[in-house]
Protein 1
Amino acid sequence: MSVIDHAYSRWCKSRFAQPTEQAISDLEKRIAIQLPDHYRRFLLDWNGGIFKEPAIIGGQEDHPIECLTFLSGIDASNPIAELGNERDLALFDDNDPPIILPIGRTSTGCLLMIATVTGETDDGTVFLRTIGQENFYLCDTMDEFFTLLSNHE
C-alpha cells in the first residue's frame, strides 16, 4: 500500500472523481501553465478530496502545525475546492500565468500551494502559506506531502 493509499484510507472523508487526461489538459490551457509531473500524476490517480483534518507535521522546522481540510481537485464537489478557481488565482498579484497554484487549505484557512515554474528548481515544490502571508517549505512531491500527515497528538 502506497503512502497516498494509506492516507486516503485513513483520513479522506470524500474523494473527488478521477479526472481524464483531457480534463487536466483543459485546466492547464485555461490557466496557461503546465502542471509539475508528480502533481499531474496525483490528480489522475487521486484528484484531491475532503479530509478529516490530519495534522501536517514536517517540512521546515519552524512551520506552524496545521490540519488538512481539503486538497483541490478537478470538478470538485465543492466549488471552493475546485482546482484553478478564479478566487484562488486572484489571491496573488503578478501571478498570471500562475507561478504558484493554490492546491488546498487547512482548518485555519492557510493555503497549500505548489510551484509551477517548469524547469526551475522549485518546480513542484509544495508550500504552506499562513494567513499572515508567511511561506513555509513542506516538500518536493505529493508522495512526500502525504508522509507529513499525522494524527493530532
Protein 2
Amino acid sequence: MQKIPQRTVERFFRYAQFLHTRLDAGAENVFSRELAAAVGVSPEQVRRDLMNFDLRGTPQRGYQIKEFMTELYQHLESSSLTKMVLVGVGNLGKAILTYFLHRRPNLSIVAAFDSDQDKANRVYSGCQIYHSSMLGEIVKQEGAAVGIITVSASSAQETADALVKAGVRGILNFAPTQLKVPEGIFLEQIDITLSIEKAAYFARKAAL
C-alpha cells in the first residue's frame, strides 16, 4: 500500500478504537455506516478508506471485526517494538503509564523521568522512573523513538529539545504550549484545556 496521508491515518486509528469497543461488547461484524457514525465521516469516505485493505464485506453482515483489526494493524503498526519514554510523572503522567501497562504489545513506555528527586529511582505501573538529568543517557540506551511530554508549559520546550537531542523521532505533547521541533520530527499537540474550553463554548451556544 502506498504512503497514507496523515488525516487518513488518524481515521484508521479512530476505526481501530471503535472496533475495539465493538469487540469488547461481543460484536463479530461491523458495517461501514457504523464506522462512519463513530468517526464522524460519510459512509462513502469509509468505503474509500477501506479500499486500502484486503477486506471482504457483505451488505448483510458487514465486515468481520477481527479480520478488519488484523488488516488495520498490519499497516498502522510495526511487528517490532516501538519504545517510548514519558517526561513528567504527575497525575497525568501516572495515568498514561497505567493506561499503557500491558495494553499494546507493540508499544511500550520503557522509562519515565521527573525533576523531583523523590519520584526518581522508583517503579510505577511497571515503569522505572529516573531523574530528568538522566534523560539523554537512558533514551539513547533504550533506543526510544517516541517521547511523551506531561511537564508544565514552562518546561515543555526544554524537554522537547532534550528528547530530540537524545534521538527521539516523534513527540506527543500534553503541555499547554506550542512547541517547535526540527523538520523531520513528528509532533502531536494534545491541549486538554483548549479542548475543554471548546466543549464549554459549543455547549453554551447549543443552549441558546
Protein 3
Amino acid sequence: MPSATTARSAGLASDLRLAVMRLRRRLALERHPANDLSMTAMAVLGALHLHGEMTVGELAARERVQPPSMTRTVNHLEAAGYIARRPGESDRRQVHVAITERGTATVLADRARRDEWLARRLNALTAEERATLRKAAPLLERLANSE
C-alpha cells in the first residue's frame, strides 16, 4: 500500500501534468500566424538559437528523437532557409547545423507573440500568485530537464 506521501505526490503529479499540458497546448495556439513549422522544427530552431551550432546527432539527442527523424527535420528547415549546414572540419561525414537570419527572426517573432499572450494572462493574477509562479519556474525547468 502506498504511503500518504506517495499518494500526495501522485495527486500533485497528476495536477501538474494536466496543468502543464493545457498551458503548452494554449501556448501552441498562440504561435505566430505566419509560422507553419511543426513544434519539433521550432524546438530545433530554438535550440540552435540558444546554444549555437550543433551536429544533427546532438540535436536528435537534445530533442529526444531518432537521428533519421532529426535528419528529415533538418532537411526541411534547410530547404526553407531556416538553417544552414556544413560538414565537420575533422570528420567530413559529420554535419553541423546553424540557424540563419530567417530562422532567428522566426524564433524571435514566435516567442514574442507567445510571451505577450502569457504576460497579459500573468498581469491578471495577483502579485502573490505571480511570485509563486516565479518561484515555481526554475523547479519546473529542473523537472523538465531531469532523466
